[in-house]
Amino acid sequence: SSFSFVAERARKLRKQLKNNGSQFIICYFDESVQDNEEKYGNMSRDDHYREISALSKLVIQDSSIAVIIKTQFRKNTPAVMFKGDKIIESAKATGRFVELFQGKHRNIVFPAETAMAADLVIGHCVGSTAGLEAALSGSRCILLNPYDMQGSNIEIFKQADILYENMDSALNAIS
Question: CA 68 to CA 27: how far, in whole Å?
């Protein structure tokens, strides 16, 4: 079945990260990254960089942590959007900071595949479909709400105690 194929790829990725010294693996999903000047998106390029650089620094500072980045689109992968960034390059050099991407423009890697390789998933409450897919695949998932979004979904997420104001508060809770 396609599920066992995805599960096997996730198992191989997890094993690779464990062999590189990882004891705890975090998966990160972005959400609709837009140019800084774009008025129709929530997450700006600067917002995305803040989250990616926080995860990069964590990997650099703690040799027991690995991070898998799974973006929606190629243009949002750190290697493309922040090409040549020293912090991200240093994190990648550890072998514990991985960008999972397949496809031409849109990432065709299933969120479930990335999530099954991780111990914890960090997604966003806006959209939140990748986080929901991760949870449905059996993974623990928390959601970021840096824009203080409101609504019925948010109320449900609050009841589950899975919402965090920003990446820093999420990483503090994880530690």
Answer: 5
